[in-house]
Design brief:
Strand content: under 5%
Order of helices and strands: HHEEHHHHHHHHHHHH
Distance between the termini: 65 Å
Length: 280
């Protein structure tokens, strides 16, 4: 069961890190935000500092992490990573203690429990899973409303903006990096995959067609070995697709060529011949 009391206790790890803020940061006070003020070396353990990922032994982020956070672009990240492949670079750029306040109304407006944000910033697996599921439910509701003829869904509050979904995803992933807990809940994986195009991506469709095409050719060869002419209609009926679909899988004369090759794999009863006994 989720523990979702607001400020639970106010994003515990974030609060601890604020208390351990390193004074050595060189960012001018007038341009620091809460995320920059929360730089630290780690939590106190028995009077010693437990160094966190991407931090220096003396406190605060290490130099390469500071360089990345000054410019969190992929250009800068790749340059830094390639320049020092073994370096620890803490990569959080989205979500901070302040977001628990300035995003509260935005989340609530779209039917998302704002109290979940504290758990997300703590990399709480239950909170991340719950908000991912809620976002997917809102996406499904919007899709059904659109299918029913509804229009102007976002303006009418019937659909959640994609930019908000993307912010939650980025905030969740960055919190996992910040807390050095790189286990992504499967619910969040499904949400991310949906935002990237779903499970029916171009290369997945190509792979599925390739598999179906091979099955059609094998079946054609098996039928041919039994004396049955494998027409597109026969193959389509056997594979549960339209004859025109099977036809689109093959170029001119391609099915016949593959059929004749595979026909040598079967005997006259349609049984597969052991490889060592097949004719060349």
């Amino acid at each position: 069961m989720l523990r979702l009391a607001f400020l639970r206790p106010i994003c515990a790890r974030e609060t601890a890190r604020l208390k351990q803020f390193s004074r050595e940061t060189r960012v001018p006070e007038d341009v620091r935000d809460t995320d920059q003020r929360s730089q630290q070396a780690g939590l106190s353990m028995g009077g010693k500092m437990a160094r966190s990922f991407g931090s220096s032994d003396g406190g605060g982020f290490n130099e390469i992490t500071k360089k990345y956070k000054d410019d969190p672009s992929i250009d800068n990240y790749v340059r830094l990573r390639r320049g020092d492949p073994e370096a620890e670079i803490e990569v959080r750029a989205v979500g901070s203690f302040d977001s628990m306040f300035y995003m509260r109304d935005e989340l609530a407006k779209h039917g998302i429990d704002p109290d979940l944000l504290g758990g997300i910033l703590d990399a709480d697996q239950d909170a991340i899973s719950e908000i991912a599921l809620r976002l997917m439910e809102k996406m499904i509701e919007a899709r059904e409303a659109a299918a029913g003829g509804e229009t102007h869904l976002i303006r009418r509050g019937l659909a959640i903006p994609e930019k908000l979904i993307d912010w939650v995803i980025c905030c969740s992933l960055d919190a996992l990096s910040w807390n050095d807990d790189l286990t992504i809940p499967r619910d969040m994986i499904v949400l991310i995959r949906e935002r990237l195009g779903g499970a029916n991506l171009h290369y997945e469709r190509n792979g599925s067609v390739r598999h179906s095409k091979q099955n059609a050719a094998l079946l054609a060869g098996q039928l041919m070995a039994q004396g049955v002419v494998p027409t597109f209609k026969v193959l389509g009926n056997a594979l549960g697709v339209a004859p025109s679909t099977v036809k689109r899988w093959f170029g001119p004369g391609e099915l016949e060529r593959e059929r004749d090759v595979y026909a040598r794999w079967f005997d006259k009863d349609g049984n597969l011949i052991p490889m060592v006994n097949r004719s060349k």
